[in-house]
Structures are given as structure tokens and as C-alpha cells.
Design goal:
The chain is an all-alpha fold and 178 residues long. The chain has 6 helices and no strands. It folds into 2 domains: 114 residues, Four Helix Bundle (Hemerythrin (Met), subunit A) (Up-down Bundle); 40 residues.
Length: 178
């Protein structure tokens, strides 16, 4: 189990460094997806299944799709890569692939199963049930405030996007009528 944790932690640190150090924004965003997935693996090892799945689904899925749309909307130019950079990237890819393959073999060899190791009295209620109970009782007011803030932000984005779309269409039609 310590080897899996060390593998996920090393992958998380390496991909986090590559997010910051890489010059191409799309590649940095993809390394951020890898960092989110490795963080989800660490949560899974800590038996926080709900947090791990939310980490992968919400952050690696939805938030990163939003980031990629923004990056592509900005239409940033691509940096020129040389042969050395391509070789380093391929070498790191093969290394990460080998580490993931070794972790998979370690899981298969130990017949690893997801879930709690022992069913003590504290494990009668699952993680999802405990989080739901706390969220809708003790933290109901902050949960509702957060949902209202997200709703206001979504409406603001729609208003800004419609305003931008209208001015861009007006500018294009003005340029076509000389």
C-alpha cells in the first residue's frame, strides 16, 4: 500500500511541476488532469471513495473541460518544440507508463479490493451517507449560499458571452459592407 501511495504522490508532484514548467497551455492543462487523477488515487487509498470520485469527475472532468475551452477560446499560439524536448517528453511518457503498469501489476498480485478493510461500528455508515448527512444538516446554509453564488456566476458568464457575441457580430457585419 505504501508503494501505491508513493507512486501516486510522485506522479502528483511530477505532473504538478510540469503544469507550472510547461510552456504550452493545453499541455499544462492536460498535466493538471493527470495531477487531479493522481490526487483522486491518493484519496482512494485513504478510503475516501466519495471524495476521490468527486475529485476525478468534477475537477478532472468538468473543470478541466472548462479550462480547455477557455484556453482554446483565447487562441494562444503554439511554441516551437525541438528534438530534445520531444525526446524528453516521450521518455517521461514511457516512464510514467511503466510506473502505472507496475502499480497495476501490484494491485492484481495482491487481489486488491476497493472498500473498507474492516467493518467496525464506525463503518456502518458509508462515506457518502456521512457527507450527505453533514451537508444537509450542519452545513446546509453554506451549501445554499455556495449554490446561489454559482448561479450568479453562471448568469454573469451568460450575460458577458451574449454581450461579446453581439459586438463581434456587429463588427464582422460592419467590415463586410465597405
Amino acid at each position: 500500500m505504501i508503494f501505491l501511495f508513493a507512486g501516486f504522490a510522485a506522479l502528483l508532484v511530477a505532473s504538478s511541476l510540469l503544469v507550472v514548467l510547461h510552456r504550452n497551455p493545453v499541455t499544462s492543462a492536460l498535466f493538471l488532469v493527470l495531477a487531479f487523477c493522481s490526487l483522486g488515487g491518493i484519496y482512494l487509498l485513504l478510503q475516501a471513495e466519495f471524495v476521490a470520485l468527486v475529485q476525478v469527475i468534477v475537477y478532472a472532468g468538468a473543470i478541466m473541460v472548462l479550462f480547455l475551452f477557455v484556453i482554446m477560446y483565447l487562441n494562444l499560439r503554439q511554441d516551437v518544440e525541438r528534438g530534445v524536448q520531444t525526446a524528453i517528453r516521450r521518455g517521461l511518457g514511457w516512464l510514467v507508463g511503466a510506473v502505472l503498469l507496475a502499480e497495476a501489476f501490484a494491485l492484481i498480485a495482491k487481489r486488491w479490493q476497493v472498500g473498507p478493510v474492516s467493518g467496525g461500528p464506525e463503518m456502518l455508515e458509508g462515506n457518502t451517507q456521512a457527507i450527505g448527512r453533514a451537508l444537509y444538516t450542519r452545513y446546509l446554509f453554506p451549501f445554499e449560499i455556495t449554490s446561489l453564488l454559482l448561479l450568479v456566476a453562471m448568469i454573469g458568464v451568460i450575460v458577458i458571452a451574449k454581450g461579446r457575441g453581439g459586438t463581434a457580430a456587429a463588427d464582422d457585419s460592419a467590415e463586410e459592407k465597405p
